[in-house]
């Protein structure tokens, strides 16, 4: 059996190596390392794929979130609603910009922001909501957008884990994750569903004025060459990375299918085991399984992880400490937030290997290993 990895980038690369190598060589020969042709081509192709009006490539997913918030012209102390059960970047950029993260609990089934709890967290200083489509499952965007519209606040989707996934509205309309809020953000970190071979990110919007502002912020606040209207930053997608992403974007739907097949196999393998809750799939969400995350009921998680490691099965805890409990937010009153679902999930979740190259014998071994620990 091929050794099992959380994400097998090597075997994925092997299948596209000739195209990727040629694309990288083209960039080297062009020497257009910054904002070369592939950057704009990729932005256009992603725009079409997502069904959005503007895609602004940038250096990574954290920058995408930061630039999105900077483009809104907020004041220090303005409040941003976000889940605590997420990768730290989501909340970190809020604090870095001297805005106030207001943590709202997640739905224990979807792992995403509990939209029913958002309204009571809104104050006169609330300026934006940053939902996270965690593990590849969509946040319930239709009611969330309705609440935001009612209060005149922005929605910035953190779509780093759910690119290619879709959300279905009550009237049957289907939209891609990241294309529903005022701004969408993603990351092309190598292990993400659409990963490049280094750092990369992008910001999406359907709003022309916001697009201009986002482009300006990402490029030193520049409105015309050497005229700088606002304080911005320098955040660009590398030409080499864009060239690689142009090869991988047409494969994204296939990659998602491969991930969903792994999830289906796990679901079948773990069906009817009371100590294990397999991931929920809300009817509105086409889940893209960035992670396959179990909730353990009355099982010693550390012991399971240790046992799996002995069987050469990697498993990870995403995330062992939620944002509001991190030292980073001690001065923001982090620990004062009462988030029982988040705190409970933090102790119960474990993510199993999931990627585009998983074999049946690897899957059988993982499922059998988990089961043999429980029985
Ligand atoms: C990966 C990730 C980010 C950050 O992306 P980087 O490209 O690593 O900066 C932000 N939010 C979430 C939910 C992520 O998973």
From TrEMBL:
Give the Enzyme Commission number: 2.6.1.-
This entry's Gene Ontology molecular function terms read: transaminase activity
Q: Which residues form a coiled coil?
A: none
- List the keywords (alphabetical): Aminotransferase, Pyridoxal phosphate, Transferase
Which SUPFAM superfamilies does its entry note? PLP-dependent transferases (SSF53383)
Which is an annotated Pfam family here?
DegT_DnrJ_EryC1
Tell whether Transferase is among the UniProt keywords. yes
Q: Which domain of life is it from?
A: Bacteria
Q: Report the sequence similarity comment from the record.
A: Belongs to the DegT/DnrJ/EryC1 family.
* Name used for this protein in its record: DegT/DnrJ/EryC1/StrS family aminotransferase
What is the organism field in this record?
Answer: Chitinophaga defluvii
């Amino acid at each position: 059996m091929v050794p099992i990895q959380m994400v097998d980038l090597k075997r994925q690369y092997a299948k596209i190596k000739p195209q990727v190598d040629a694309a990288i060589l083209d960039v080297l020969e062009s020497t257009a390392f910054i904002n070369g042709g592939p950057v704009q081509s990729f932005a256009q192709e992603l725009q079409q794929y997502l069904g959005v009006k503007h895609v602004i490539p940038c250096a990574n997913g954290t920058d995408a979130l930061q630039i999105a918030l900077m483009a809104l012209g907020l004041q220090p102390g303005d409040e941003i609603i976000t889940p605590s059960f997420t990768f730290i970047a989501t909340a970190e950029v809020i604090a870095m910009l001297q805005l106030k993260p207001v943590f709202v609990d997640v739905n224990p089934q979807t792992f995403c922001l509990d939209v029913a709890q958002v309204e009571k967290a809104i104050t006169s200083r609330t300026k934006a909501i940053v939902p996270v489509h965690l593990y590849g499952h969509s946040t319930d965007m239709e009611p969330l957008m309705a609440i935001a519209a009612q209060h005149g606040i922005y929605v910035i989707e953190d779509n780093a884990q759910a690119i290619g996934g879709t959300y279905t509205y009550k009237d049957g309309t289907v939209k891609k994750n990241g294309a529903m809020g005022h701004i969408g953000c993603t990351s092309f970190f190598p292990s993400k569903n659409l990963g490049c071979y280094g750092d990369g990110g992008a910001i999406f919007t359907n709003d022309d004025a916001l697009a201009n502002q986002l482009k300006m912020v990402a490029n030193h606040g520049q409105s015309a060459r050497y005229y700088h209207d606002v304080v911005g930053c320098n955040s660009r997608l590398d030409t080499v990375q864009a060239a690689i992403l142009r090869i991988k974007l047409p494969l994204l739907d296939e990659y998602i299918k491969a991930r969903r097949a792994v999830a289906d196999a796990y679901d079948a393998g773990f069906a009817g085991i009371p100590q294990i809750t397999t991931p929920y799939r809300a009817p509105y969400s086409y889940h893209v399984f960035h992670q396959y995350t179990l909730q353990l009921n009355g099982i010693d998680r550390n012991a399971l992880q240790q046992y799996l490691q002995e069987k050469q099965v990697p498993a990870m805890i995403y995330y062992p400490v939620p944002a509001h409990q991190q030292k980073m937010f001690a001065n923001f009153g982090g620990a004062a937030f009462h988030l029982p679902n988040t705190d409970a999930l933090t102790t119960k979740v474990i993510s199993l290997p999931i990627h585009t190259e998983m074999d049946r014998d690897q899957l059988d071994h993982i499922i059998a290993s988990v089961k043999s620990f429980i029985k």
